[in-house]
Write a structure and sequence with these properties.
Helix content: 25-40%
Shape: globular
Structural class: alpha+beta
Radius of gyration: 18 Å
CATH architecture: 2-Layer Sandwich
Order of helices and strands: EHEEEHHEEHEEHHHEEH
CATH class: Alpha Beta
CATH topology: Alpha-Beta Plaits
Number of strands: 10
Strand order of the largest sheet: 1-4-2-10-6-8-7-5
Strand content: 25-35%
Number of helices: 8
Distance between the termini: 33 Å
Length: 259
Amino acid sequence: MGTDRGIWITWYDVDEIGRDDYLRWVHDTYMPALARMPGVLWAAHYASVPKGARRASARENAVRRTDDPAVATGSQYILLAGAEHAHVFGNPSPSELHATLPDEGRKMLAARSGVRINIMVEAGRIDGPEAQGYRHGMAPAPCIQLGSFNCTPAHEEEVLAWYTKWRMPAMGMTPGCVRFRSLASVCGWAKHAVMYEFLSLEARNAHFVTHDDAHPEMKAVSDRMVQHLTHAPGSASVAVRTWPPLAKAEGGRRKEEGG
């Protein structure tokens, strides 16, 4: 298990008007500063991939999402930061940190809408086949699939066993997978989250969505698990990393995997 066991996740939207200015600021100013904060081990920013630009999983239409109006609905962008433990993000907390930003920073943050935050701890992790050659340590891979959800309490033990005995070992053998993380919440609406990391969107599309085809013995169990989960708006998000920017070598590998 890695040493980055605390993860701060922010989902949000940004209006098209002013989006370029915001993204320039978040990539050039906010993210580098966040990555340098005491206790922070890495930071990463992702843009969600529209449904039409990614291959859907077999159960995407069966996913139930919350309709609670108190749950913010942002899903265009995902901001992540990792630390040794979750309490790094309690001093300062996200709201305390943002209150100390200069006027320009607070103005840029005000351009976000539908902001939803979870601070989580890593409950489990497994490396995929690509972990050995991955050159960026604990930092998340160029493509992620991030699901955040709550589970019917009566079925939480069953879901835990399903991830532990089935999904995690299967991802450890899935081509293109760097790692899989199972997360539990310290604060935020979602009690659970799972993050799949892939070398590229092409690798995710080619291998993750055919996951059950390769393991038909677990299909019925997987179908049943979906019925017990209530996802956050937009979950599960498929997203590609925008900061740190992809190196040329990463981009070349993505092209090769895409054919």
